[in-house]
């Protein structure tokens, strides 16, 4: 096997050396570590030992020549069977840049130096990327803010914010078209043009600043239709209960540290969903729909759990199919994925259909409860309020405890007061003491 | 400097599991519990034995645990940290006291090149569960080298955890969590808050060691602070409330790692951030936080992230430290500016 | 001692190389192979032990020269040769009891040898494949320390731990434990080393400070570190100091064994100055011809640690040419083995750089690792750090 020995960095970052004298000639036999050449670096005269045993075939650089580190200096014919050189080192600077005697790559070559192997010369070409980098639309994964309509805060770059302010456009009213729901410069300009087109007089211009008119369309329009349909077809009853959820909050903290839940986003919403699913298992009649045409009540033996989400497009209620079959970890992941998809505006219509019962998390906006309106075709919706520290009588003393409010609206045609109360009380009891979910 | 502290602060009138303690006593009780529950825990430093430390944080420990476990060391900071590394290699959990912030620099190599890297250098074979307690910060009218805030040097160093407590409750629990951690922990104690009293729940910590906490909810802007500045930030928020401005205050608690998600969640709501610390703003924690939040909340921010902190001077003579240290007015000035965008 | 009275200033020219006669130290074997028997250090070693010392010295030297060659082949980024210091390191290393713990410098290849560390693990550090190489608890040997003198404080702290474990002065030879803290002449100027002396002294720690005075801190001669012989520093700290002929494996062994025994008995620290000479370069990046006085190397070559043992083995008929040839063959085999092992040390995976920064999860490290992983996988072809 023909081996080449390249000029190594004799010490900590030297870049070149002078060939002082060869100690061997072509035809000589050398053993490993026989000194073959004297070189002079910027630091000292160094004897270089041969890394190979064999017969010298050719000297590639002449005495007196100054050569850069990495230059092939000598060719030695080795006996392949000797096996002294597995050729695999590759990282050593004698065989750098590319390993054993192959021509150097243009990429990733090292500038030889005297401490260590020397710095790599920067690649002159760019490695091809599968997908170009894109800025994150937002830092956090999905924060619960987006859950619940109406309170969405627009996202926009600072110059776009400035443009909006200069043009008198309220960013809250501009439909975003950018990736991830970002309001773009074009969106703001379009909004300003619409406003201008609608403006005839100075008075109107003034009025425009005091009011913003946005055409009802898209998700907003659908939401409005659905809400009206539901509110005026299904007689709503809302009940609520305050509950001390300190134990659930502690359980969440514990679970978050557990390796089983590594990388999973565990929020109070997940626990509420879990509690509701247990309550539904105990009272399946609440998970039903009213079939007006057939004059039948249809009780579902599966739970497709809707999670109301505020998105750049408006209120969406994506659904987790067969949520009752999921473990806590899977449930948490499903909620996280669903919320992220909704936030990115990628929720497909098919992912919003078929819900049987729904949760809306109004607590993230700092409110305690409400009277949620049923999604059409469903018989119950649970609103969960903020979890906040409140004075609470605990074990006979007033203590600060983590307290929340659950509000359950249900269709009184299907669910009577007793059933609704039991479902709500059961969910509350589980959140008060998660251990009761086991019984 | 204050006296040795209020040893019997109102213990009797409260339930045993919630007590009103000064931060110094809360730390002392935390150290005591750690030493009781784990015989490998040692306390070492200058004057930590008979004297109980210059701030009395280790008061009474030598009497109860003996000088084999509460070690008055030679006056040599590098020696304290270096010896602690050796003790940790032998299976102990040393808690070192550096007497004052400004005295930590002789130990710099042992902290950043030895302590921080030992686990890494040994590819995980060696653990060095050393806690280095550092009373830090100004506002106590001290002579020079007794009022500094060197935390950023250590937060910059990979391999160290850096935490700081702002309340007696956190002091009590975070010191125990730091001791229980298998990593080296730099534990910064705001010395001007040593004698502040607060209720300490002896049953449970408020949060894991590496989490920030929202200590006051608000709407218009978020103030991120830590250590001695948390109270200043809360005071500023109270003043602002009277002016109709709702300010959220986040106590960072951990400087390395930084709890970025908690900050992001807050800023996504309030859309404005001011970072407050005593240390110089130039290349300080606030600079890192500003960069993080600008990247994470770029589309939500209504204003640049502003910093309130020390000037780019050495810590000045104490007669002018009130002008050097951020106070309520300095914090509110920044709040006004950030709200003006 | 002439050192204090010397008219030479610190920057003055170096005198004629210090010879064995001029220096007052403990010696059991003269450079000619004659056995001396100082009363304070009685030593009876059997033939096997003597031959063991010889084998250690020869194999260690072979390992060292092979590593130097591997650097010249381009297989190592750097090497710190120990040529000339073999006897000091083998003498000290063989004096350790199994339960003792040692803290080496980065030139302590004799200690890694004695403590059973695989040569490839030692080379991994110098090849840039690792920052350490071995588990200290497995070999009771800490990693090499690069920042001069830092490990001496760790040794003092470790000895404090031994003290607290109650593993000192029990009289049980399997339990009583000592620490060997290695450092060089340059390190004696470091604050950490002096602080370690204070800790060891006031706490009466079971530690032996083993200083190899190889005459140079890179290029700076001893006179830049001290105006008195180094071993005399100890008295100022309140514990004994002794100077030993560092090229005499028997003397180093006897003196170190004595000091370790003393430490294990609970009688406190000892400072040993092993007076020796670094015949090679500081590292492969150094050029000693720029600072080494003419004739000095030749002088010390006369004092070679292996030659005198050869003489003694021949004199006492403990070893003969056949035995020496046997060991030489073993050394050659070791050379081949080391070379092959070095070349087959794998490069660490790039992502492994994120491992073991902390014991417990750290959000920043985790975030950096996640980013790096995504970045790497964003390219059409794998690699980048190929």
In short:
The complex is a heterotrimer of chains A (439), B (341) and C (386). Chain A is built from eight helices and 19 strands. Chain A has 439 residues and is an alpha+beta fold.
Explain this structure.
The complex is a heterotrimer of chains A (439), B (341) and C (386). Chain A has helices at residues 158-167, 185-197, 202-210, 218-233, 246-257, 268-282, 328-343, 417-432; strands at residues 2-6, 16-22, 29-30, 35-40, 45-49, 54-59, 66-68, 72-77, 236-244, 288-291, 296-299, 305-307, 309-311, 314-316, 319-320, 357-361, 380-384, 388-394, 397-411. By secondary structure, chain A is of the alpha+beta class. By secondary structure, chain B is α/β, with parallel strands linked by helices. The longest helix of chain B is centred in the N-terminal third of the chain and has 15 residues, at 23-37. With 386 residues, chain C is an alpha/beta fold. Chain C folds into 2 domains: 47-343, Rossmann fold; 350-386. Helices cover 41% and strands 8% of the residues of chain C. Chain C has 13 helices and 7 strands. Chain C has a 5-stranded parallel beta sheet, sandwiched between helices. Chain C has a two-stranded antiparallel sheet with strand order 4-5. Chains in contact: A-B, A-C, B-C. Chains B and C meet through helix 3, helix 4 and helix 5 of B and helix 5, helix 6, helix 7 and helix 13 of C.
Largest protein interface?
B-C, 50 and 42 residues
Helix content of chain C: 40-55%
Radius of gyration of chain C: 22 Å
Shape of chain B: globular
What would you give as the CATH superfamily of the largest domain in chain B?
Answer: Thiamin diphosphate (ThDP)-binding fold, Pyr/PP domains
CATH architecture classification name of the largest domain in chain C: 3-Layer(aba) Sandwich
What best-fitting shape of chain C do the alpha-carbon axes yield? globular
CATH superfamily of the largest domain in chain C: Thiamin diphosphate (ThDP)-binding fold, Pyr/PP domains
Strand percent estimate of chain C:
5-15%
């Amino acid at each position: 096997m023909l081996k080449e020995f390249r000029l190594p960095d004799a010490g900590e970052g030297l870049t070149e050396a002078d060939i002082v004298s060869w100690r061997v000639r072509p035809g000589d036999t050398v053993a490993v570590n026989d000194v073959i050449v004297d070189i002079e670096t910027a630091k000292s005269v160094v004897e270089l030992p041969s890394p190979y045993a064999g017969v010298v075939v050719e000297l590639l650089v002449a005495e007196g020549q100054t050569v850069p580190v990495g230059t092939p200096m000598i060719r030695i014919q080795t006996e392949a069977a000797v096996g002294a050189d597995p050729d695999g080192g590759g990282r050593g600077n004698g065989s750098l840049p590319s390993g054993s005697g192959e021509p150097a790559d243009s990429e990733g070559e090292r500038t030889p130096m005297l401490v260590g192997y020397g710095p790599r010369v920067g690649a002159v070409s760019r490695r091809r990327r599968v997908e170009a980098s894109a800025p994150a639309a937002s830092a956090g994964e999905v924060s619960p803010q987006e859950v619940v309509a109406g309170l969405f805060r627009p996202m926009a770059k600072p110059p776009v914010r400035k443009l909006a302010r200069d043009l008198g456009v309220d960013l809250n009213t501009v439909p975003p078209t950018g990736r991830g729901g970002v309001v773009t410069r074009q969106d703001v300009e379009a909004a300003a043009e619409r406003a201008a087109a609608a403006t005839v007089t100075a008075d109107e211009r003034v009025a425009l600043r005091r009011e913003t008119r946005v055409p009802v369309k898209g998700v907003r329009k659908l939401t409005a239709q659905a809400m009206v349909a539901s509110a005026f077809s299904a007689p709503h009853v809302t009940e609520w209960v305050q509950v001390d959820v300190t134990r659930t909050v502690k359980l969440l903290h514990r679970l978050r540290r557990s390796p089983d839940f590594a990388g999973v986003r565990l929020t109070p919403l997940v626990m509420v969903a879990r509690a509701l699913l247990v309550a539904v298992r105990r009272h399946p009649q609440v998970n039903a729909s009213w079939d007006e045409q057939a004059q039948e009540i249809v009780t579902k033996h599966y739970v497709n759990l809707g999670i109301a989400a505020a998105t750049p497009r408006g209120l969406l209620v994506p659904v987790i199919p067969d949520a009752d079959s999921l473990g806590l970890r899977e449930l948490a992941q499903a909620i996280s994925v669903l919320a992220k998809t909704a936030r990115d505006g990628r929720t497909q219509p098919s992912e919003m259909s078929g819900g049987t019962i729904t949760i809306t998390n109004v607590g993230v906006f700092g409110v305690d409860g409400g009277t949620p309106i049923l999604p059409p075709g469903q018989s119950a919706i649970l609103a969960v309020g903020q979890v906040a520290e409140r004075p609470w009588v605990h074990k006979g003393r007033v203590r600060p405890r983590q307290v929340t409010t659950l509000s359950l609206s249900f269709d009184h045609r299907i669910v009577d007061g007793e059933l609704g109360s039991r479902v709500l009380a059961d969910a509350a009891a589980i959140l008060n003491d998660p251990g009761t979910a086991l019984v | 400097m204050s006296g040795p502290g209020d040893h019997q602060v109102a213990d009797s009138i409260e339930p045993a599991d919630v007590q009103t303690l000064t931060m110094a006593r809360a730390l002392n009780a935390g150290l005591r519990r750690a030493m009781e529950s784990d015989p490998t825990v040692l306390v070492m430093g200058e004057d930590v034995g008979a004297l109980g430390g210059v701030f009395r944080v280790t008061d009474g420990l030598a009497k109860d645990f003996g000088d084999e476990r509460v070690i008055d060391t030679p006056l040599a900071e590098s020696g304290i940290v270096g010896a602690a590394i050796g003790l940790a290699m032998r299976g102990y959990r040393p808690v070192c006291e550096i007497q004052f912030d400004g005295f930590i620099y002789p130990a710099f190599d042992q902290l950043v090149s030895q302590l921080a890297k030992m686990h890494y250098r040994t590819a995980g074979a060696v653990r060095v569960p050393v806690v280095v307690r550092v009373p830090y910060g100004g506002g106590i009218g001290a002579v020079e080298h007794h009022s500094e805030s060197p935390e950023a040097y250590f937060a910059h160093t990979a391999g160290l955890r850096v935490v700081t407590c702002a309340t007696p409750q956190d002091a009590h629990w975070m010191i125990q969590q730091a001791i229980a951690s298998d990593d080296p922990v730099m534990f910064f104690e705001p010395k001007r808050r040593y004698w502040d009293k607060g209720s300490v729940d002896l049953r449970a910590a408020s949060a894991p060691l590496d989490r920030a906490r929202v200590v006051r909810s608000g709407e218009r802007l978020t103030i991120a602070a830590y250590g001695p500045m948390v109270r200043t930030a809360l005071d500023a928020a109270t003043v602002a409330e009277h002016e109709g401005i709702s300010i959220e205050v986040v106590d960072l608690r951990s400087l390395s790692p930084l709890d970025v998600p908690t900050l992001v969640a807050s800023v996504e709501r309030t859309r404005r951030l001011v970072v407050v610390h005593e240390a110089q703003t130039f290349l300080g924690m606030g600079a890192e936080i500003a960069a993080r939040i600008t990247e994470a909340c770029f589309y939500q921010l209504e204003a640049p992230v502003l910093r309130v902190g020390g000037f780019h001077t050495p810590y000045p003579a104490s007669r002018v430290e009130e002008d050097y240290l951020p106070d309520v007015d300095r914090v509110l000035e920044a709040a006004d500016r950030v709200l003006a965008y | 001692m002439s050192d204090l009275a010397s008219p030479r200033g610190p920057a003055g020219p170096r005198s004629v190389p210090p010879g064995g006669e001029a220096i007052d130290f403990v010696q059991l074997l003269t450079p000619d192979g004659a056995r001396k028997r100082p009363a304070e250090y009685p030593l009876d070693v059997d033939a096997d032990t003597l031959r063991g010392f010889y084998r250690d010295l020869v194999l260690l030297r072979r390992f060292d020269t092979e590593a130097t060659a591997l650097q010249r082949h381009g297989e190592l980024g750097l090497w710190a040769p120990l040529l000339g210091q073999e006897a000091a390191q083998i003498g000290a290393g063989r004096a350790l009891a199994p339960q003792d713990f040692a803290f080496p410098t980065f030139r302590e290849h004799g200690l890694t040898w004695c403590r059973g560390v695989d040569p490839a693990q030692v080379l991994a550090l110098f090849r840039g494949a690792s920052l350490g190489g071995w588990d200290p608890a497995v070999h009771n040997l800490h990693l090499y320390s690069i920042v001069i003198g830092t490990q001496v404080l760790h040794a003092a702290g470790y000895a404090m731990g031994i003290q607290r474990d109650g593993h000192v002065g029990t009289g049980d030879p399997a339990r009583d434990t000592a620490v060997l803290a290695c450092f060089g002449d340059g390190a004696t100027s470091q604050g950490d080393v002096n602080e370690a002396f204070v800790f060891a002294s006031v706490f009466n720690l079971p530690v032996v400070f083993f200083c190899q005075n190889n005459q140079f801190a890179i290029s700076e001669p001893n006179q830049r570190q001290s105006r008195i012989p180094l071993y005399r520093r100890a008295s100022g700290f309140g514990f004994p100091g002794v100077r030993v002929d560092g090229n005499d494996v028997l003397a180093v062994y006897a003196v170190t064994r004595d000091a370790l025994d003393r430490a294990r008995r609970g009688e406190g620290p000892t400072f040993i100055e092993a007076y020796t000479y670094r015949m090679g370069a500081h590292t492969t990046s150094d050029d000693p011809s720029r600072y080494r006085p003419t004739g000095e190397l030749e002088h010390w070559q006369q004092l070679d640690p292996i030659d005198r043992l050869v003489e003694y083995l021949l004199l006492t008929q403990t070893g003969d040419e056949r035995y020496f040839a046997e060991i030489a063959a073993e050394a050659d085999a070791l050379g081949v083995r080391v070379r092959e092992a070095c070349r087959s040390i794998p490069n660490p995976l790039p992502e492994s750089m994120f491992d073991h920064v902390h014991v417990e999860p750290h959000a920043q490290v985790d975030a950096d690792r996640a980013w790096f992983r995504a970045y790497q996988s964003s390219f059409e072809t794998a690699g980048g750090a190929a």
